[in-house]
Every structure is written in C-alpha cells, then in structure tokens.
Prior knowledge:
4 helices
Amino acid sequence: MVVRLDFKSKFSREVETYVQENGGTYIEAVLEIGEKFEIEPDVAGKNLTKPIIEKIQIEGGDMNLLPRKKSKELPFNG
C-alpha cells in the first residue's frame, strides 16, 4: 500500500510539473506522463491525486467532454 501511495504522489507531481513547464492541459499531461511510465490511461487515472482529478474535471467541462448536469430550472427567465 505504501508503494502505491508513493507512486500516486510521484505520478501526480510529474503531471503537475509537466503542465507548469510545457503548458497544455492536465489531460494531455496525464497521457504524456503515463506514456513515460509505460502505463495505460485507465491505470494512470487511478494514480492521480484528488486535486489533479478536479482540475481534469474542470478542463473536461470547459471542453464539453463531460455530460452536463441536468437542471430543473429553465435556462432563461421569461
């Protein structure tokens, strides 16, 4: 379990560093760093810290990659 937490922390730091040094999105960074560590994207996703996951969710929403939550309110006032 300790090894997994260490890897999760290291992987997330690498993702954060990649974004800071190269720009781009966190999604791209996860794919690039995952390739560096020779792990599949689904495995990479399981090795991210909560702050990185939240940033990816924001990016996904901004790029319309995530389904929108249905609202019970009308989108306009009439």
